[in-house]
Each structure stands twice: as structure tokens, then as C-alpha cells.
Design brief:
single chain; alpha/beta; Rossmann fold; 5 domains; seven-stranded mixed β-sheet; 24 helices; 32 strands; globular; binds zinc ion
Length: 759
């Protein structure tokens, strides 16, 4: 497999590269193996023997023992540590103990479910026992469905299918629900935000149906490393007692984890060489030597761009087919082919979106290159886990973008290596989400007076739904009274708010959807005449059809960008929590956000000159959500000249937003920041951070709880930024100084503001 230059030599060459800002080595780890548990059936032991396994890893043994005792567990294990045994072994054992025992496996995607089915079926075949395991998803043929319902001992599905096909038809699944002993939830960390809040309610419905049929299943969850796996597991399953299993006993080869910050090309603005270029150069070095390499990039389009450049760069050494792309949108058999060729080594390089981050089996590669920070530390480790075989050395290279999030994390490599600060949050009592699932639950089984929804009081909502003529009350029971089937109209993967679809009509014969955007962002980014940047390509919005929520765009090549003014106003409706600092007050509660786009400017790319403007005619938007308000009470700020104060608050909110997003594990579109020189509720300078979903999904609550850390990190981040007086990577603006004292930069003023809160 190895070409003329071994991997070690290329790694050594990289050591001299001055753009590498951090080099971390993870030492090789011997396997920690224990004898088979006493309670394990001989048939399982034999099947393991057949595979040359004479003992199991410590974390697998702990899981086995705990589950057989009836404990709910969350196993936190890295990629390729044999986590599937954490659930497959106890589930099979339970079946051998009681042949009617059933298990339900929930995977976040269909592809993962398919993968798991093959794995468990191979194991069952080796045991020569009669355990039926099936996947149940949109692709399952109608004639097989009935077999799965009646005879499936292990049913493998995804949350969407559980929500829309299994639970509403529970009467067809009586043998499953009567005998359900174990529920497996894989990739727990993916259930956060809106999606997680929905799935937690699906689990509430599932448990309700289990109770009805008299079963009380145990939960086995697995997760990547996050700060709060036990808490998330408890929130999602509604179970109070969860055992954490993190004694990973799998062996590891030596691994290098390297952070690469591209050189600065524009000193004044602190802008760096594009990460895609650097990624291509680095990946090509390994690929030229035929060393198996995976490149991760965030968007589908960037995957395609990197792929074509890489193929070009190594065309002398490798044919085109040796490097493949992998992303959502490829057909399943095409994906299977790529996975197979990666496993057998025929494919040397693959460029992928996070589609390959989850457990799909592609074997272990030697090199992983990431184009930018993937959005969470948990994801970074999942991606990094793709490189590294049991005995061989491997290397992971993360290349930063110029954006504040990447730059912030590159200043804090300890986040990657000393335990993740990311906390995954859900808010299962978000009113909109809760009401949706109460409808589904009422369809499934009538609610009785006094019944709670896994602990949450719901009578008021049921009364409301009765008034709305959705439910009908009779002899202390609420029944579903509509003909329509509620789960059909409820998607687990989006919030209630609508998105605007972006349609490219550059090619007359073929209009294509290139993306979508929430209505709030669309106000400023997709108005008529806006220049919309999509993966580096400029498009002009020709027509925004607000009623139909469609934006028609066309590819252009212009020398300006557009910048729209959004008048956002926050009203604090109710304060739930408050904390006082020396020079400010922090409050958390209900807020109403109103936003209206007013005008836009055309700004020349090179010089930032204003070369034109226009009016925007779009309706005002309202959002009722949760947020925090940081209100300054200090004399220093109250006396500050208005323009300076405004810029200071803008700079501060820019930093706070980015740092907060890392802490609460969300995208920066999920948590917005708005500065106000004179907020309505206090008439004082205030920075707001709010959840960008109706009803909130727990992000700003988490920000409230971690606010001290967020402030400390923000201060540290600005101090360490290499710019002199502010730049787009830190406070968002460059070269602005105080009108009173030219020597006092905005960077310094923002720092002072943070210090005044902290001290
Ligand atoms: Zn800076």
C-alpha cells in the first residue's frame, strides 16, 4: 500500500511548517480486555470465539453488566472503539434469556440503520439462533412490513419513521410493544436543538405506548464526547437514573492532531489565505504517495470544488476514480460502492461532507484533513476518528478559516484536548413542539384526566385543543376528533417557521434549488437586488416572492456586495432569572423580537465605497422566543458618546455570539446577538442574545448559566487576536478609534467593557 515516501516522513516534513499553531500527540494505547462476563450465554461466547475474540473491552463489559441489571446507560465512546457491542451483546443476551424479548434500535439516519442491520445479522448468523432483525424505514417493501411488525425481535429504524409510521399504528405492533425490553439510541449527541426537542417528545409518546401495553424498556444510548452526556440522555429519555460508561478499552495507534492556520494575506483586515487552497495542497501531498486520506468540508458545494481541484493536482499520480466525493444527494448504491472501495483500498482519497462523520463503515484511513472547524468539537472528534488504524500511526490536520469561530478555537486548542466544553441542549417543553406531539399522542391513545406527559402538566393544553375542536372530551378522556393524521404534517427536523427556498435560474432549461434560508435572515440577504453569496459564487436576487417564500436568483459577476439595514427591536416580556454584576445586570426570560428590513447599500468590494442604495419593501417579522439581556449600568457607558457606544456594543455582541455558540454547541444562525444603545425595558445600553426559534430551544438559558465563562473567554479571545485595533476575526470591525482619543481603539474599548463586568 505504501508509496515511496512513508507517512512518517511526510509527518516529519510538516513539523517544520510554521503555520502549524498546535501539535498534539495522542499516544498509542494498548487494549484493555476483560474476560467474558459470567452472565454471558455460551452461544455468544462461541460466536465471539469464531471471530477470534477471547475477551471484550472494558467499556463493552461494563455496558453488558449494567444493562442486564436493568440500568439505563449512556456509553461515550470514540469512533471505531467497538461501540456496537455495547448494545448488541446485552440485547442478544436478553433475547436468549427470554425468547420473546424485543428491542428497538433508533439511528439518526437511514444509512446508519442499514449498516447496523448487516452487522448484527452477521453476528446472529454466527450464533445459529433464531433472532430476527429488520430495518423499518421508508424503503421497506409493503410485503415485508407485516413480517417486521409481527416477527421482528430487533427493529431498526429512525426517529422520523417511529414518529410517523410506527407509533400512530401501534395496534399493528402489539408484539413489539408488549415485549419491548431495550431501546437503543445511537449518536445521542446529534439529538439537540429543534431536532432533539422533537425526538424527546417522540420518546415520550413511545414510553406512553409501552406503558399501555405493559412494558418498561431500558435505554442504551451512545454518544460522542460532549460536556453533558448524562444530562442530555436523561432529558431525551425522561429517565432520571443514567449510568455513564466511558472506560474505553479499545486499542489505538499513535495519532497526531495538528492545527494549521493559513498565512495572513491582508494584514489590515487580518484575512488569511483561503482554507480550501491549503487543504488541497496538504491533501495532495499524502495522496500523491497513495496514502489513504479523507477530506471533510462543511458544504456540498465546497466538497465538489475541493474534489475537482484535488483530482487536477494529483492527476499525474492517481487516476480520477481513485478520489471520490461523498455527500448527501448521492444515490444509495453509489454510496455503497464508495464505502466498499474505501474499505478495500481501491479508493485512495475521499472528499466528504459530515455525511461520513457518523458510523458508516469505511474502514480506517491514515490521514484526515478538515476544511475549517466542523461546527462542534464533538463533530471534530468524530471526523478525526476516521483516521487511525489499530497499530498504525495517523494524522489529523484541521485548517482554519478566517472567521471568528475558527480563529477563536485555534486560540483554545485545550478545548479539543482537555474535555469538551460543549453542552447539548434541548427544550422538550417548547410550546409549539409540545403541542404538535400532544396532538400525535392523542391520536395514538386518548388522554385521561390527571395524566401527565412524562411528568409535564398538560391539562391546560388539552383544554385549549378542545376549544380549537382538535380534541373532544368525553367522560374525563380526551379523544382526537379530526380525520387527518397529525404526524404527517409535523417534521422532526425543522422548527415551525417557514424557510425561503433559493432557486437558481441561471440556466434557462434547468432551474435548481441551491439552498434555503429562514425568513428572518431572508429579510436582509434575499431582498430584491441583493447579492447573495453561495459557496463563493455571486448570485443576484431577481425576485423575492414573499408569499410563496421563493427567491429567484441568477449567477452574476459584480464588484460589490449588498448590505441591508435591519431594524431589530427586542421587547422583554417576562424576566425569569436575574444576576447582578458590578457594572451590569444579566437577565433571562421571554422576549419578542421584531425585525424590519429598511434599505440596502451597494458596497464596492475592494474599497468599501458606497456606490448605490435602494429601498426594501418587506413586511415586519415577529418572533416570540427566549433570550438574555446584558444591561450596562456603569456611568462610564452612560456618558459615552453615542457613536462610540454603538460600535462598542456591536463589537461586544459580535464576540459574545461567537464564543457563546461554541459553549452551547450551536450554529451561529441559532443564537442571534443584537446590541441596543437604549433598550426599551431599561433605557440603558444592552446586548441581547436570543434563540432563533419560536418558543426558544434552551440555548440562551444555557448562555445564562455559563455567562461567566463566556465573558472570560471573550476577553481572552480579543486580547490574543493578532490585529492591532480590531478586525473582522475578533470584534467584527477594523481600524475604528474613539472620537475623543485617537489612541484608544475600539478593540480596547470593548475589552474595557468586558473587564468592567468581570471585575
Ligand atoms: Zn482582531
Amino acid at each position: 500500500m505504501f508509496g515511496k515516501k512513508p507517512l512518517q516522513q511526510l509527518i516529519e516534513e510538516l513539523r517544520n511548517d510554521k503555520h502549524i499553531t498546535f501539535w498534539h500527540e495522542i499516544e498509542e494505547q494498548e487494549a484493555s480486555i476483560v474476560p467474558f462476563p459470567n452472565l454471558m450465554d455460551d452461544r455468544i461466547k462461541q460466536a465471539l470465539h469464531k471471530r477470534g475474540i477471547e475477551g471484550i473491552y472494558t467499556h463493552q463489559a461494563s455496558s453488558f453488566d449494567a444493562v442486564l441489571k436493568g440500568e439505563n446507560i449512556v456509553a461515550v465512546t470514540p469512533t471505531a472503539s467497538g461501540k456496537t457491542f455495547c448494545y448488541n451483546l446485552p440485547v442478544i443476551q436478553r433475547h436468549l434469556n427470554r425468547s420473546n424479548s424485543r428491542a428497538l434500535y433508533i439511528f439518526p439516519t437511514k444509512a446508519l440503520a442499514q449498516d447496523q442491520k448487516s452487522e448484527i445479522n452477521e453476528f446472529i448468523d454466527d450464533m445459529e439462533v433464531n433472532i430476527n432483525s429488520y430495518t423499518y424505514d421508508g424503503d421497506t417493501p409493503a410485503n415485508i412490513r407485516q413480517v417486521v411488525r409481527k416477527a421482528g425481535h430487533i427493529v431498526i429504524t429512525n426517529p422520523d419513521m417511529l414518529h410517523s409510521a410506527i407509533l400512530p399504528h401501534h395496534t399493528k405492533w402489539i408484539s413489539l410493544f408488549e415485549n419491548l425490553e431495550t431501546i437503543v439510541i445511537d449518536e445521542l449527541h446529534t439529538y439537540r436543538g429543534v431536532f432533539g426537542s422533537h425526538v424527546a417528545n417522540v420518546i415520550r409518546r413511545l414510553k406512553r405506548i409501552c406503558r399501555y401495553y405493559g412494558s418498561n424498556p431500558t435505554f442504551i444510548c451512545t454518544s460522542a464526547t460532549i460536556a453533558n452526556p448524562k444530562e442530555l440522555c436523561s432529558e431525551l429519555t425522561g429517565e432520571r437514573y443514567i449510568k455513564l460508561i466511558d472506560n474505553n478499552g479499545a486499542p489505538k495507534g499513535k495519532k497526531h492532531f495538528v492545527l494549521y492556520n493559513p498565512p495572513i494575506v491582508n494584514k489590515q483586515l487580518n484575512i488569511r489565505k483561503p482554507s480550501t487552497k491549503v487543504v488541497n495542497e496538504i491533501a495532495a501531498r499524502f495522496l500523491k504517495e497513495k496514502i489513504q486520506t479523507i477530506v471533510f468540508s462543511r458544504s456540498r458545494v465546497s466538497v465538489e470544488i475541493i474534489l475537482s481541484h484535488l483530482q487536477e493536482l494529483v492527476k499525474g499520480e492517481l487516476n480520477k476514480k481513485s478520489i471520490r466525493g461523498y455527500r448527501g444527494g448521492y444515490l444509495p448504491n453509489q454510496r455503497r460502492e464508495i464505502e466498499r472501495n474505501l474499505r478495500n483500498g481501491e479508493t485512495v482519497g475521499v472528499v466528504s461532507t459530515n455525511a461520513l462523520e457518523l458510523g458508516v463503515d469505511i474502514g480506517q484511513l491514515q490521514v484526515c484533513v478538515m476544511n475549517g472547524y466542523p461546527g462542534s468539537i464533538a463533530s471534530s472528534w468524530q471526523q478525526a476518528g476516521r483516521a487511525g488504524r489499530r497499530k498504525d500511526e495517523s494524522i489529523v490536520i484541521m485548517v482554519a478559516n478566517s472567521n471568528p469561530l475558527d480563529q477563536y478555537l485555534f486560540q483554545h486548542p485545550e478545548f479539543f484536548f482537555e474535555g469538551s466544553p460543549e453542552t447539548a441542549r434541548i427544550n422538550k417543553d417548547n410550546l409549539i413542539i409540545l403541542v404538535d406531539h400532544l396532538k400525535c399522542a392523542a391520536y395514538e391513545l386518548p388522554f385521561e384526566r390527571g395524566e401527565t406527559f412524562d411528568g409535564t402538566e398538560i391539562e391546560e393544553i388539552l383544554e385549549y385543543l378542545t376549544e380549537e375542536r382538535v380534541l373532544h372530551e368525553q367522560r374525563n378522556k380526551w379523544y382526537w376528533m379530526n380525520d387527518a393524521f397529525p404526524a404527517h404534517n409535523i417534521s422532526l427536523r425543522s422548527a415551525a417557521q417557514e424557510n425561503v427556498i433559493i432557486i437558481d435560474q441561471s440556466q434557462v432549461e434547468k432551474h435548481r434549488v441551491i439552498g434555503e434560508m429562514d425568513t428572518f435572515s431572508a429579510l436582509t440577504l434575499l431582498h430584491d437586488e441583493a447579492i447573495y453569496l453561495h459557496e463563493g459564487t455571486q448570485f443576484q436576487v431577481e425576485y423575492l416572492d414573499w408569499d410563496e417564500k421563493k427567491a429567484y436568483v441568477r449567477e452574476v459577476d459584480v464588484e460589490y456586495f449588498t448590505d441591508a439595514n435591519l431594524a431589530v427591536q427586542l421587547k422583554v416580556l417576562e424576566i425569569d432569572k436575574e444576576q447582578t454584576y458590578r457594572e451590569c445586570v444579566l437577565q433571562y426570560g421571554d422576549m419578542m423580537v421584531t425585525a424590519m428590513a429598511t434599505i440596502f447599500k451597494k458596497i464596492k468590494l475592494e474599497t468599501f465605497e458606497n456606490i448605490g442604495s435602494g429601498q426594501i419593501h418587506l413586511p415586519e417579522q415577529e418572533l416570540h422566543t427566549n433570550g438574555i439581556a446584558l444591561t450596562f449600568t456603569s456611568e462610564m457607558f452612560l456618558k459615552m458618546e453615542e457613536k462610540t457606544l454603538e460600535q462598542m456594543l456591536m463589537g461586544l455582541s459580535h464576540v459574545l455570539q461567537h464564543v457563546a455558540c461554541v459553549r452551547v454547541m450551536c450554529d451561529k444562525n441559532d443564537l442571534h446577538a443584537v446590541p441596543e444603545v437604549k433598550a426599551i425595558h431599561s433605557e440603558k445600553p444592552t446586548v441581547f442574545l436570543y434563540d432563533r426559534y419560536p418558543g426558544g430551544i434552551g440555548l440562551s438559558d444555557s448562555v445564562f448559566k455559563q455567562f461567566n465563562d463566556i465573558l472570560n473567554d471573550s476577553e481572552d479571545f480579543i486580547r490574543r487576536c493578532p490585529c492591532e485595533d480590531g478586525c473582522p476575526s475578533c470584534i467584527g470591525i477594523a481600524g475604528v478609534t474613539s472620537p475623543i482619543n485617537e489612541k484608544e481603539s475600539m478593540k480596547k474599548i470593548v475589552l474595557n467593557a468586558i473587564t468592567s463586568v468581570l471585575s
